[in-house]
Amino acid sequence: MRTPVVMTLGMVLAPCGLLLTLTSTLTPGWRLVKGFLDQPVDVVLYQGLWDMCREQSSRERQCGQPDELGYFAAEPVKVARGLMVTSLAVTALGLLLATLGVRCWQDEPHFALAGLSGVVLFAAGLLSLIPVSWYNHFLADRAVLPAQSSPVTVQVGYSLVLGYLGSCLLLLGGFSLALSFAPWCAERCRSCRKASPSSARRSSISTVYVDWLTPAIKYYSDGQHRPGPAQLGPTSRRKAGFPMPRPPPKAYSNQVDVLDGEKSPDSHLDGSSRSTRPCGSALPCDSDL
């Protein structure tokens, strides 16, 4: 049996979503801050969930920058840390279930287990999409996510974009794998119909026994009910059964010579003259017929 398309699609999208979500969680690129007054114009500060890095075009990136404004203590950052890590763990669990359910070394896939893995991966996608969307909502709010005042500007970082993409891929992959429940549900419904006594097919009318009608038919004839042998007594018992049809009547045949006496003595002179005297037989003559 070939692997269904929904399973193949889910097994492709889910690992891609896991890779993008992991990259988004670890990289310090959720927010990009630039335009500092006391620093060169090309200085850019990348802020993530675990680290902050300072980058200048003429120098290498320097990570481990101090958090002077309390960025890591902000509520969206704390929630994003917990939910992103939880999403990664749930995604790993979902991929493990998908590996066991989508055949691999089996002749046929385990539809129920594959569908369960899809539900788990879909939940993992939601767990990663919630913090990414919440962080993006407060991206420019300096009261929630601390940053220097204007003219310092804040922009969306690449890690946030990767988080969006990874969450969407997990949602699509989980939904695709969850469609594996359809064959499993169809099989369960068929087995329930077979096992249910109310759904059993009723017997045909040709199999109904009507032995109880035999006495009524036996003692009913000519539009009237006839008494049974027990009511008529031992001397008036009749034979049981239906009357046999009578044979059709035989064709009429006259055993007497009907031509005897029909011709006159001089009939040989005139063949057209015939006697009107009736024949001497009681049976009808041919001429009369």
Q: Percentage of helical residues?
A: 40-55%
CATH-defined topology of the domain at 5-32 and 70-192: Butyryl-CoA Dehydrogenase, subunit A, domain 3
- Give the CATH architecture of the domain at 5-32 and 70-192: Up-down Bundle
Estimate what percentage of residues fall within beta strands: 5-15%
What characteristic shape results from the CA principal axes? rod-shaped
List the helices and strands in order: HEEEEHHEHHHEEH
Poorly predicted segments: 203-210, 271-279, 285-289
Q: Rg to the nearest angstrom?
A: 53 Å
Roughly how many Å apart are the termini? Answer: 89 Å
Q: Give a count of the beta strands, DSSP E runs of length 2 or more.
A: 7
Please give the CATH class of the domain at 5-32 and 70-192.
Mainly Alpha
Largest sheet: 5 strands, antiparallel
How are the strands of the largest sheet arranged? 4-3-2-1-5
Q: What count of helical segments does DSSP give?
A: 7
- Overall average residue pLDDT: 76
What class would the helix/strand composition place it in?
Answer: alpha+beta
Region (Disordered): 223-289
Biased composition (Basic and acidic residues): 260-271
Family: Belongs to the claudin family.
Keywords: Cell junction, Cell membrane, Membrane, Tight junction, Transmembrane, Transmembrane helix
Can you walk me through this structure?
With 289 residues, the chain is of the alpha+beta class. It has a domain at 5-32 and 70-192: Butyryl-CoA Dehydrogenase, subunit A, domain 3 (Up-down Bundle). The protein has helices at residues 5-26, 75-101, 111-137, 158-178, 181-195, 214-218, 229-232, and strands spanning 31-34, 44-47, 52-55, 62-63, 153-156, 220-221, 224-225. Strands 4-3-2-1-5 form a 5-stranded antiparallel β-sheet. A two-stranded antiparallel ribbon has the order 6-7.
